[in-house]
Amino acid sequence: MKQTVGIVGDYLRNAAMRSDGAASVGTQAVSERRRDVQGKTLSRRSLLAGAAAALAGVMIAPGVRLVEVAQARPQLGAPVTSKVRWGLLIDVNLCSEGCDKCVQACNQENGLGEATRPTDVQWIRKVELKDRNSGRKASAPVMCQHCAEPPCVDVCPTGASFKRADGIVLVDRHTCIGCRYCMMACPYKARSFVHEALTTQKPEVPRGKGCVESCTLCVHKIDRGDGTTACAEACPTKAIVFGDLNDPQSDISRRIAEIQTTQLRADLRLNTGVRYKGL
Amino acid sequence: MASVIDLPAIQERRFWRLGALGALLLVVGLGAAYMMEHEGHVITGMNNEIVWGMPHVFAIFLIVAASGVLNVASVGSVFGQAAYKPYARLSGLLSVAMLAGGLMVLMLDLGRPERFVVAATHYNFTSVFAWNVFLYTGMFAIVALYLWTMMEKRLNRYSRSAGVAALIWRFVLTTGTGTIFAFLVARQAYATALLAPLFIVMSLSWGMAVFLLAQAGLNVWRGATVTPEFLRRMRNLLGIFVAVVLYLTVAYHMTNLYFAKQFAFERFILLDGGIYPLLFWFGYVLIGTIAPMLLLWWPGGGARRSVLAAAALVVVGGFAQLYVFVIGGQAFPLDIFPGFEVSSSFRDGQIAAYAPSLPEILLGIGGVAAAFLITLVGVQALDILPRDEDRAADAVAGQ
Question: Do A209 and B185 touch (CB under 8 A)?
């Protein structure tokens, strides 16, 4: 304690001496010399550094422009970037009541079984809607909304629930400990927990008992260049459109720019990747 | 004459009998956890709608009460009330024991319990669960340190600092437990900052009740008794904590009732939700709040039996409140399409059904058994219980 007080006292004393210029001659000379030397060194250094930076910029800038253009279309095998944001547009008016081709296609593509019990997994489901006031009926598929601000990613303790750079929200089955906090956090009831051992997994869709899972936007299909999801492919009325929300020329972006679309639970400001027309 | 410190706290035969009972319940609980891990959660009552069930009700009670039970020690060390000091060591031991029991239940309920190493090495710090890994392990360390300062005479002068550290840590920890739910914007039952202080006062109330029961139980097994002064202080504290929990619960529900969008949820919890209004009004309000307050504060009351009965009822009410909060909060469907009636194969729009299964209940009881065993062994092996000279001083202080 005494020592600490002593050390602090020394610091204060030194600071006081410097401010009123009453430092020892030796100290002042040294510091002046340092400043003098630094002054010359800095100006030469700064010139060299500035020149090098300018040269590098001149050389690299055109390359950056070229690389930018090249990365506009996703390359197979290339690292995923946020240049692309995958999303879905669902036209509720085109969705038929009672049809569940999208659900069957998803089950088929991802190796999911038929869902009947409360413990069975569902990645996409058809919701039948009836307006309480007007009685108007509608039907819509609901799946993981691939939010830009996903609550499931915020709450996952191990980071197993994560958002890929291209906007797809996924679960890393190596790190998921099965705590189900993401299921509590999801505003869309999109996630399912695997309640029993599985034997019929597909090799490109890793799944297992004790982990949480949800719609992957057919990430395995996208990564191998199929350019669409199983549900979008299977829909007989083309009610589901898949595409790049960041590309203004894509089909989905052009439609969203023309017609009115909504996000589910838009008041939560999660900026979902799935948009609905006709709700 | 043998000094009081030389005698075992609990008679040998009784100790082994109690230990055997505790060990049996613990083994059964571990067996239930093994089955859940082996067969999958399909053997439990939990499903894709009710994702957290009975194990979480038990675990949250144990963890929240573990924080609150340390209050007796805090009042002694931090706030300088000498009468509480003899009981501080028991308070610390109970805290560690219940925290261990609660964490055991939580970790064994995980879908992949063998991945606790992953949980300890991969952190996402926007998640309260990730903070909790540090808060809970830190709590063990701090309470252990605190106990050490209280039990090692040469370190007694540091017990106040350790007590302050423990007090701050447990407030942060219990706030963390409350914010697990407070941060869930998706669900109408949660998503309110009020849950942080609510969990703090629940911890104080349940912790005090558990302390009283544990103390009474140990006294029975030792053939000892508690001083009237101690009883009076504990009774007042318990009554105040129960009242404050009621206050915050009323504030929570009254505010919810003010919002049109929350009305359907409140109607479900308070009126027509079946088991949930039943547990809320009869379990929490009547049995867990009004009855204990009457037992504690009715003029002419406050006898030892009434105080202990009140403590037991507070614990029952706490479980009821947690069941309504954790499970009722999940049973009410998410409002994804406001203004629409919905139905789907994934039970959208439906009240979720849940029935606690045997493996879940056994696992929860196993956690309580673990806490019981740790307390039992700790009391027998360490100098935890109030010494005769402490209790004499307490009696003098009371005059």
Answer: no
